[in-house]
Amino acid sequence: MLSEQQAGVRPRLLPDVLSLVELQRSGVPHTDDTLKYRYRLENGRYVFPACRATVLALYDGQALVPEVSEAQRCGVILDRTCFYSEQGGQSHDQGYLIRGGLEDVLYSVEAVIRAGGYVVHQVTVPDLLKTGDQVQLHLNEAHRLSCMVKHTATHILNFALRKVLGPSVQQRGSHISADHLRFDFSVKGSLSSSQLQQVETCVNEIISANMVVHSSEVPLQKARTIQGLRTVDEIYPDPVRVVSFEVPVSELLDGGSVRETSVELCCGTHLLQTSAIEDLVIISEKQLVKGISRIIAVTGQDAVQ
User: Where's the Alanyl-transfer RNA synthetases family profile domain (predicted)?
Assistant: First the structure.
């Protein structure tokens, strides 16, 4: 096996257990990352919130430090962030930080990772950075929007597979990046080209219907009572985020809707309406092992091409 360095992948600067305990002992609050969900549609364009934050802690790969010098890699923990940290199969956001008073110096964010309630922004520092510094966060909006498109498309694909192949289809894993989506699911054999076409047709009908995507935080036990809820085999937070299409989550909780729709527990960032996906094309489907298949799909202009 290649090490991360040999493979050209930079090792992640994730605070160790001792550093996490030290953060808690020092009274450093968990990162408020609720801004990652606070975007809106305005005249057909997605508007993402501005975010200013304070540096609460710095991790140099060995320990928590009060400051880091030029060209040093570190993990930056802020009081708040609008960046999405890698979780739920979705890639982390990209972007940069600007330190107060240094508007022309960009602190590029290489990765965003969660560790014990803290969101860690991995940065190679172009200039001195110390705890207490004020920073402004700048999100790569095109990258985020591409991830939102792929994540919403993944939920639709999950729904379409179940509709075409029957209720025995279960999600076994997924990965969402800006350029494609990967979806693993249980199935008895490889899909025929006719079945794949039916799945694509079902997905694209939902896309063109421009369905509203609803999301709401719900107590975990209450969420589990929703009829038709899709989950994967993992530990969910409490309360948990529920994402549904066309039918509001409140209506599903009341049991007042008998409409068949996509509804899943999901911490990802989603579109507010499905039409922005434009199109979905399955570019490959193969059996990983007996009973588990993997689909790779593209959306938008990549799908058109």
Answer: 1-305
Q: Which two tokens stand for residue 25?
A: 């002992």
CB under 8 Å to 294, separation ≥6 — which residues? 182, 183, 184, 284, 285, 286, 287, 288
Contacting residues for 71 by C-beta, under 8 A, at least 6 apart: 124, 125, 126
Show the beta-strand stretches assigned E in the chain: 40-42, 45-47, 51-59, 64-65, 67-68, 73-78, 95-99, 106-115, 118-124, 129-130, 134-139, 171-176, 181-186, 213-218, 240-245, 263-265, 280-289, 292-299
Q: CA–CA separation, 247 vs 230, rounded Å?
A: 15
**pLDDT tens-place string over residues 269-302:** 999 999 999 999 999 999 999 999 999 999 998 9
> How far is CA 298 from each of CA 34, 94, 157, 281, rounded to the nearest angstrom?
28, 20, 11, 6
Burial of 268 (0-12, 13-18, 19+ CB in 10 A): buried
Q: What is the pTM of this model?
A: 0.93
Which burial class, exposed, middle or buried, applies to 3 when counting CB atoms under 10 A from its CB (0-12, 13-18, 19+)? Answer: exposed
Q: Which tens digits make up the pLDDT trace of 54-81?
A: 999 999 999 999 999 999 999 999 999 9
Answer whether 146's CB lies under 8 Å from 178's CB: yes
Q: Locate 195 and state its tokens.
A: 């079945």
HEC string for 108-128: EEEEEEEECCEEEEEEECCCC
